[in-house]
Amino acid sequence: DPRAAYEAFTGSVPLDGVLRASLLSDGTTRFTEFGLGGWGELQGILDLWGAAAVFSRIREAAAADPSGRKWPRAKHRDDVSVVHFTTFRRDGWGHVDFDSLRLRLTA
What we know:
Blueprint: E1 20-24, H1 30-33, H2 39-49, H3 51-64, E2 82-86, H4 98-106
Antiparallel strand pairs: 1-2
């Protein structure tokens, strides 16, 4: 429905000091709705383990409540999509280089 575009939140921020940014589908926001963690925890999981780790936690929670009694929702299974940008350096296996992270946060 094209009218959904009018519900979007928009804005801008200076890029200085931005360490990460994410675009989340409404299905991915169920991470917080299901009480799996807050926004900071969601970002941390994306940083360290990637989108698949977030998706599996959401899917497990939804499967544990198939009737939607604990977490009411319009559909049992929703799409989960993420675009995640980070400035953290990674090693050859895709893991966060914690030394570079510590330098960025304390600099």
